[in-house]
Amino acid sequence: MTLHIYNTMSREKEAFVPLEPGKVKMYVCGPTVYDYIHIGNARPVIFFDVVRRYLESTGYDVNYIVNFTDVDDKLIRKAEQLGTTVPEVADRFITAFNENIEGLGVRKATLNPRVTDHIPEIIAFIEALVAKDYAYASGGDVYFRTNKFEDYGKLSHQNMDELQLGIRIEVDERKENGQDFVLWKAAKPGEIYWDSPWGAGRPGWHIECSAMARKYLGNTLDIHGGGHDLQFPHHECEVAQSESLSGEPLARYWMHNGYIHINNEKMSKSLGNGITVNELLKRAKPAAIRYFMLSSHYRSPLNFNEDTIAQSESSVMRMANCLGNLKHRLSSAGNAADEDLQAMQKRMDEIKAQFNAKMDDDFNTPDAITALFELISEANQYLQKPVVTKQGLQSFIDALESIDAVLGLLPVHASQEAGLPDAEIEALIVERVEARKAKNWARADEIRDLLSEQGIVLEDTPQGLRWKRK
C-alpha cells in the first residue's frame, strides 16, 4: 500500500510522492522559547517524531528541521520580567525544551536552527521581496502586500475579503492594507535589534520560517507541519512570501494536528488550565504521555483528563509487561525447534502488514496501536504454553520492537520510567540472591528495600525469580 497523507492545501488524502526518490524534506514549526512548553506544544513534537520514524522505517532518508523562534515580543517581555537578556531567556528555555523532548522519547531533529543565527538570510529575503514589489517599507517597518499575491488565503481556505485578522497581524495605519503583515519590525527603545536597510529592528514572525526552510531545504519542501492554529495566519503568510519570491510551491504536503482540550475545555491562559510538560512528567510516565497523544488521530481534537492519562498508563504497562515476560522466558527457554513457528510467523507478518496499512492511511496511529495490541495478545497466548522456545520468543520480541521503533512507547518505559537502568537492577537481584545464600539477611533486605523504592517488584515464578516495574 502507498502512503497517503491528508493535505491541508487540497483538503484531500493524496498519495505521497517526494520530490526526490528516497529522500524527504520535512519542516515543522518549533516553539517560541520564552517559557516551558505545554501539552499543546507536545502534541506536534510527538506526532511528527512518529511521522519521521515511520518514514525512516520504510526506507526514506529524512531531513527533519524544527526551528526555534528565539527573538519575539514574548521573549522581550520575559527578559524584562526576569531582569535578563533575550538570548539568556532563549538559551534557558531551549535547554528546557531539549530536556522535555528527551523525557518524552522524542528524537532530536536533524537541525534546530535559531532565528538569531539567520538574520542575514532573513534580511536578504525581505530585500528580494521589496525588489519584486511584494513588500514595502513604512516608518522603519517592512510589510508584505497581501493583495499582490493572488492566492492569499488558499491554505486556510478563506476568502480575502472575509479574512479575520489573527494573532500577530497587527492593525496599523502605516499599512497600505489591513491584512498586510510585517516582515521587519522597527526596534523600540531598549529592545534587542539588528541593523538593516530599513533601520534598527528585528524580523517579523512569519518571515523567519520561510528564510530558514529555504536555506536548509530549498524552495519546495515535501512536508510542512505544525498545529492547527498555525494554518492562519502563520502558514498562510509563509506561503505568500515564499511563493512570491520563488514562484514555486512552498510545500507539497501540509499537515496540521488538532487541538488539545483540558477536561473538555479549550486550553487557554484566560482559563488558567494549561499544563506544562514539566508538570505532566511529574504526574505521568513518559510512555503514557506518548500513548495518550497517539491514541487519537492526529487531526482530531484530544481531551486530557486524569482518566485518559490513567488509561494510557494501564495500556503501556500491558505492553511493557508482555515484552518483559517474553525476555524473561527467553533466558530459560530451550533451543528445540518450534513446530508452530511458521504459523506464528505468518500471523506476526499479517499483523505487521496491518500496522503498516494503518500508518499508510494518513498516519492512523490509533488503529496502528490496535494492531500492536493484537500482536501482544498473540504473544501472551504463546506465553501460556507450558513449553516455549527461544525461536518463538525471539520472533515475538523482534516483531514488537519492530513496530515500537515507530511508536516509541516501549523504549521510553524501559529506560526512563525508573531511576535504575535494567542492567543495574539485574546486578542487584543477583547480589541479593547471593546475599541470601550467604545468610547476609541485612544486605538482602537492604537491596529489597532499594528496589522497592525504585518501583521494582520481585516475583517468584515457576521459571524462577523475575522482576517488573510498578
TrEMBL record:
One of its GO terms (molecular function) is cysteine-tRNA ligase activity. Residues 334-361 form a coiled coil. It is found in: Cytoplasm. It holds the Pfam family tRNA-synt_1e. Binds 1 zinc ion per subunit. A motif ('HIGH' region) lies at residues 31-41. Residues 354-418 form the Cysteinyl-tRNA synthetase class Ia DALR domain. InterPro entries: Cys-tRNA-ligase (IPR015803), Cys-tRNA-synt_Ia_DALR (IPR015273), Cys-tRNA/MSH_ligase (IPR024909), CysS_C (IPR056411), Rossmann-like_a/b/a_fold (IPR014729), tRNA-synt_1_cat_dom (IPR032678), tRNAsynth_Ia_anticodon-bd (IPR009080). It is an enzyme of class 6 (ligase). Gene3D superfamilies: Cysteine-tRNA ligase, C-terminal anti-codon recognition domain (1.20.120.1910), HUPs (3.40.50.620). ATP binds at K269. The keyword Aminoacyl-tRNA synthetase applies. It catalyses: tRNA(Cys) + L-cysteine + ATP = L-cysteinyl-tRNA(Cys) + AMP + diphosphate. Keywords: Aminoacyl-tRNA synthetase, ATP-binding, Coiled coil, Cytoplasm, Ligase, Metal-binding, Nucleotide-binding, Protein biosynthesis, Zinc. A motif ('KMSKS' region) lies at residues 266-270. Its cofactor is Zn(2+). Zn(2+) binds at C29, C209, H234, E238. PANTHER family: CYSTEINE--TRNA LIGASE, CYTOPLASMIC, CYSTEINYL-TRNA SYNTHETASE. Monomer. HAMAP family: Cys_tRNA_synth. Belongs to the class-I aminoacyl-tRNA synthetase family. NCBIfam families: cysS. This is Cysteine--tRNA ligase. It comes from Paenibacillus spongiae. The lineage of its organism: Bacteria, Bacillati, Bacillota, Bacilli, Bacillales. The gene is cysS.
